[in-house]
Amino acid sequence: MTHSTIFQQAQTLTPTATCAVCPFFNDYNEPRGRGWCQVFDHYAFRHHPCTNTCRSAIQPLLDLQPITVRVELVSKELDPDEDTPVHLHSFVTEITVSKPSKESVQNAIASLGHSSEYDIAHYWIPQEPQEFDAI
Q1: Is the per-residue pLDDT at 46 higher than 60?
Q2: C-beta of residue 23 within 8 angstroms of C-beta of residue 37
Q3: Which of 65, 69, 81, 107 is deepest in the core (most CB within 10 A)?
Q4: Do residues 122 and 69 touch, judged by C-beta distance below 8 A?
Q5: Are 23 and 55 in contact (CB under 8 A)?
Q6: C-alpha angle with apex 105: 103 to 107, nearest 5 degrees?
Q7: Would you say 96 and 68 are in contact if contact means Cβ atoms under 8 Å apart?
Q8: DSSP designation for 70
């Protein structure tokens, strides 16, 4: 087995990340494969591998990306007979927050104007739909 076939097998098992798949790379769509790297503010090529320097520079930027969170809100109503809280209405809404923490979710709900009428039952980050193989 030659070195080139071993290298090809290794690439198919663990593909190398390149500038082409980076969310901060603007491809010029030209034959030479050039584009603009927003992280380092200079031109780059689609085939450039993602290095540890790239990863360490990109991670803080990815942490700043907003996250979509689903929130279940339940109504704040009192039972007229017992004066205890009763949740008659509930709905699920999606909001975008910088971090999925209770404080940021509460602030986002307050900015929508629902904080006086509804309580947060729970919130979660929605999972991407997964495709299952048919049998």
Answers
A1: yes
A2: no
A3: 69
A4: no
A5: no
A6: 70
A7: yes
A8: E
Mean pLDDT for 54-58 is 85
**Residue 45: pLDDT band with limits 50, 70, 90:** very high
How many whole angstroms separate alpha carbon 135 and alpha carbon 132? 9
For residue 64, with 0-12 CB atoms within 10 Å meaning exposed, 13-18 middle and 19 or more buried, which class applies? Answer: exposed
User: What DSSP designation does 51 have?
Assistant: -
Using CA atoms, how far residue 99 sits from 72, 92, 107, 121, in Å, is 17, 19, 11, 18
Q: How many Cβ atoms from other residues are within 10 Å of residue 68's Cβ?
A: 11
Predicted TM-score (pTM) of this structure: 0.46
Residue 34: is its pLDDT beyond 60? yes
Half-sphere exposure of 123 (CA within 13 A, CB side): 23
Instruction: Give SS3 for 106.
Output: helix
